[in-house]
Each structure stands twice: as structure tokens, then as C-alpha cells.
Amino acid sequence: KKISDVLQKSAPKPGVPADLQNLLTQHFGENRSVIEIEELKLPDSCFLPANDLSHSFSSYLKEICPKWAKLRRNHKEKKSVVMLVLCSSALRSLELIKSMTAFKGDCRVLKLFAKHIKIKEQMNMLEKGVFHIGVGTPGRVKALVEQDGLCLNSTKYMILDWNWRDQKLRRMMDIPEVLYKHLYVLYSMYSLLLFLALRSWSVKFSFC
Prior knowledge:
By secondary structure, the chain is α/β, with parallel strands linked by helices. Helices cover 45% and strands 10% of the residues. Strands 2-3-1-4-5 form a five-stranded parallel β-sheet, sandwiched between helices.
């Protein structure tokens, strides 16, 4: 059955942590041992409450990140962002950037997608300036991480545009070419979180 056919008969359900955990397990399960798969599982404390579809993007961010103003003021590191928002396309990224005006306040937002923006330009901007929020696609974020243009160590919030659907009623995770790159970023984030846990570094995952 097509995704659109299934959705027409049932209302969409908001994403929950179990969806993400199951996705990683299914994807990496064939190539990793039971112990390695177990290491991919994160405690519930690493996840913030998901958007129950009653919030706007700005109001949702205000609820899950009430101390944003303080985090924004304290962030001084280049080549990094405090909040990373991942979505399925450049157009969707622009929509989210426009819709977060009431939340972001006096902070710098960087567009992290490939459409009309060269990766070298984004790397130069990250190297020379301080940005607080990055909004973009998994493909471009993956490329920036691989080329050491973006460092995830300072990232405190990773927002997944999980619930939004395109004209074909597909979520980001339903698009194969987006899913692979998305999983790469998630696995990188998971690996960092597990590796740096002893240093009291933490990141919160959230579904908008």
C-alpha cells in the first residue's frame, strides 16, 4: 500500500522516542552485533516531549527550551550551533526559519542546505562567525560534518522535523534518499553522545 492510501484512512500520529530507536535498530541491525545495537539505545532522559501537533514551531521550541536566552548568550564557539534542526528539504527549512521568529530572539540562524548555497560558503561562515541555530537537510549537514566544517560537540538540542508531510504525505523518514543521510547524522550524534557522556556533555532529541 502507498503511504498516502494508509494516511487517508487514519490520522497521523506524532513521533515518539521509540520510533527513532526502532528506526536505528532496523537500519543497523543487520551489520552490528547485539551488543553494538544495545549501545545505540539511549535513555528516555535524552528525549524531550514531542510536539503533540497542537503547537506552532515557535511555541513548541519555547516549551522545550525555556532557557534559550541564556544558552544563546553563553554560546561563543565557532563552527558549531546550539540547536540543530533537521528537515527534508531546502524549502521546508526556509518555512521553519520563518516560523521560529517569535522564539529565536537576537540570535544568528544558519541555512544548512545545498540549494543555491555552496558548502565552502557555509564552512567559511561557520569558521568566521558564531551561529546559534542551524536549520537544514541531513545531506548538507552530513557533508559539513565529514569535512570538519561543522562540529556537534556544542549542540544541545537536535530537533527532528518528524511530523511534517509533503504533498505526497511522506515524512522525512519515508523518503529513502533523505533517510540514509539522516541516519548518518543521527548515528554521528549518538556516537558523540555515548563517547562524551563521561565528560557530562549532553544533547536532547526532540520531534516537532
